[in-house]
Amino acid sequence: MGGQPMFILAEDSQRTRGEDAQSSNIQAGKAIAESVRTTLGPRGMDKMLVSDDGDVVITNDGATILDKMDIEHPAAQMIVEVAETQEEEVGDGTTTASVLAGRLLAQAEDLLEDDVHPTTIVEGYHEASALALEAVEEMTLDEELDDDLLQKVTETSMTGKGTGDVDAEALAETVVAAVRAVESEDGVDRENVTVRTQTGASSSATELVEGVIADEEPLHEDMPRSVEDATVAVLDVDLEIREANIDAEYDITDVDQLNQAIEAEQSELRGYAETLSEAGIDVAFVTGDVEDTVASYLAEFGVLAFDSISDDDAGAIARATGAKTLGSVDDLDSDDFGHADRVRVERFAGDDLVFVEGGAAAEAVTVLARGGTEHVADELERALNDALDVATAALDSGGVVPGAGASEIAIADHIRSGSAGIEGRKQLAVEAFADAMDVIPRTLAENTGMDPIDALVDLRSRHEEEGVAGLISEGQTGHVGDPVEYGILDPAAVKREAVESATEAATMIVRIDDVISSS
Fold first, then answer.
1. Which of 59, 85, 95, 140 is an active site residue?
2. What pTM, to 2 d.p., does this model score?
């Protein structure tokens, strides 16, 4: 049979084609990017997100905002994925990547209206992206990442975020100490740094603990709350009466038989405690359930024990202490145990926390973030995690670049210079990419209280004269200066990832000319 191809769709299917599909997708992407644009920079604003259940989150973290938003449009969801990718890869720059992706779409929209083919736009954007990465390499500082420079990087990442009554400088010292504690010749083991929050004190009470912390309380009130030079066991078992593998009934005809049965159970339960004690275990972390009777025997033997430990906490404790996770209490071997200088239980606002410190546990560290309210503690946790990721990226992924919009100005300038060697309409797309990069310094200027056009002109002029120029926020406004002199620095990896992920999302959306959806 001849004729045109036939599409067979369900009656409730909807189809959007051509310019309508492109326009719808671009508008959705732009809208999502615009929703986080005002959070960018040290003077960025916060968003209050309220769920259907009434749960409230207050933050200016781009990844958190986009994650909590109820987004249905598929193109808009792709911008969310940009933020997610940025967060997973480098831990910071999510707002920058999202805003840049939105601006790339806006520039593409203008090109489409001028009859530039989507494929041409895509090719131009990819060439511009390569030029942008060249500019990042040229902007990367040659200085060695010592503690002072690393502290400036982490402080920059936290400036403008909710940190309670403690400034970013003090927190940056804690972050640098944490990262250095887990650094080795192979780099920074980010998994060995944990942030744990606890309300009941101001943010200034935030501290670095050389070890791990778990939200657990001792199984028995008579157990010790502090153990020095502790031998630690991590057990993935249940310490309770074993169940028979077959269905069986026991016919008990007198009291003696009942007493014998009870004694047998007590003997089995006491046996668990004796086994652990005789093996030299001082502290036991059990992922399963521990019978109350076993707990009382363990207390009698002076063993500190915890049960129902989560897999994450059990893994962290095992890694920190050098213990192996054991699936049985039979044939215990001291080589499978871990060690800590001290295991202590502290009470905070009615909740017990167990600290596993020193010794082998010093290979892992925990930042105990304090906050007067849950909202403050949660936002502080996000800021600290971003700072830890930023410090890790700076150390492991290739240095730092000037912040405060200076890198974006340099990228845009480099792309415009490179566009002269590109022929045809593709040059328009390359130049559009350079214009899109300006959205970052423009937004920083707006959020700082400066005129964005004047600020952009001053930035370009100073960059041309001195090679580096950023927007320095001071008081209620800002001025153009050298961000390196002010200690405003970003990891080069953050800039590279933002350019790559934003370009990928924008080009994917621009190429779509047909949207078919079904209910």
1. 95
2. 0.74
